[in-house]
Amino acid sequence: MLELTDAARITAGVVLLTVVAIESGGWFLVKVVTGRVPATAFQTSFFRAGHAHAGVLVILGLLCVVLTEATDLAGGWRWLAATGVLMAAILLPAGFFLSAVGDGRTSPSRAVLLLPAGAAVLAAGVVTLAVGLLAAG
Q1: Which residue of 45, 104, 115, 133 has the fewest CB atoms within a 10 Å radius of its CB?
Q2: How far apart are CA 112 and CA 108, in angstroms?
């Protein structure tokens, strides 16, 4: 049986609860694509991208929490490996959703700057975890 640290177990439990929020985002998206919530083509595409990134990154983030337990990483490196993808799961969807909010918006707001920030955190997290796994004794 896999033994998780208390921190990993608690993190995984909290992250699983966020699936309900992602599910409600899916309900919102259904309203958008069925025309019950008015949205421009730009907004619809950004809302879809935000929802997709949230779901995929939460799943990958949970995997990273578990895989970090198989490394010898410590301190900030361990934190980055375990939670970098989860931080990206906040930043990237927020960048898509927040930059598309507003009646009739056809181009992103300045919140689009969350996208490169999220991409950087995502890359840092997965590279740190990969190095940690490859270096584990």
Answers
A1: 104
A2: 6
